[in-house]
User: What shape does this take?
Amino acid sequence: MNESAVLQFCKINFQKIKDYIKNRKILYDIEAIFLLFVPILITLDEHVKFVGTILTGIPFFVGILSVLCYQRNKRIWIKYAIITLLFVINVRFFLESSFDGQFEFIKQLIIFLTCFDMVQDKDFLKTIKNYFEKYNKFITISLVGIIILNIFANNYSTTWKMNAFQGIYVDPHQAAYRCCTLIVYTMFLVKAQKNNKILNIILLFACEWLLMRTGARTPTLLGIALGMIEIYFMKDEMLKFYNEHKKVSIIAVIVFVIAMILYLPRTAFMQKIFISSEGTFDNGRSILREADWKYFIESPIQNKLFGHDNEAIRQVNFEVMWARIWCHSDIMQILLQFGIFMLIIYFETWIRALIFHLKGEKKFDKFIIIMLNLVYLFVAFYNGFFFYPRFIISIPIIFALYKVYNQEEKIEVKQIEGDTNL
Assistant: This one.
């Protein structure tokens, strides 16, 4: 076989592989399989060296390739071309320190953007549903094992001048966001009606209990919001149980309310509120935002548009907080590090995903979706959202619960109504 024949053979086979990946949307399968292992991966993250690379590497590369390969939309290509151009300008003209620090944030931002872009393809959401239903027992066993490990770890940090639970994770904040991720997986089990209902309720309340013990207020509010949505998913079963066992239901609710009133003041979540109320309630975040905003306003126009070096931002924060930290706010970090144009792209992505999420939903579901996104926005502004990709990568599961399961429920209702009319 001569050289030209070999080249032709390679070209044909490469084209076949390319077509297979494109037509079968095989990258969605990779992402869905990856999501199956996320609860385990976020547990091993700080204990096994290469796991962190997997947790950011797969959603970063698969996310970019999926968006560009499967969303046949010129707007998407233009958007990511602009993002690339903005980052190149930022690095070429405004980077004064190491490239690694600047890239670390754009990597996390890209994971956020691609997650919110991919969820607008129902094929991706259906792929998640199919894999999760097929391996629901694996998910359940993973959750049970992780919760048990956290309970027996009984590991605390002296962060915030109190004993804040961190379990098998590196600190209370990371533990809180990881508990929020686990709650998303329990939401799937409830919505898909997998496992015994009592087991699913136990899993949810165990995650919420661990979360309340961390003392991290902002992610705890996020976890509570997710838990309330999960309880809403159980409304039909709860109503049925109430109608069949009214006295037991009323007694159970009263006992639960009393237990919560007695237990809540003892949680790290409430203790953190009491401790913070004696000093700065927001742990100095308002001071940080004021300093960052002043730095932005006083910056030259080119920096306003294209950003600064991340080390310069850390220096500004060091001068007011005595720690070389990031801005602890998506809005301020993106505005300062990548500029106005990148912040516009950030909100454009979020708003498009929200509009897609709302389409075709019932009025009350629309209300829930809007409220959840307001919680997201609060977390993004007050504590940081895209900075925590271990939680961000689980958000497509929430979209799958609404856009796939809700759609199937509507089809079933129409079929029943059609049979009744006959």
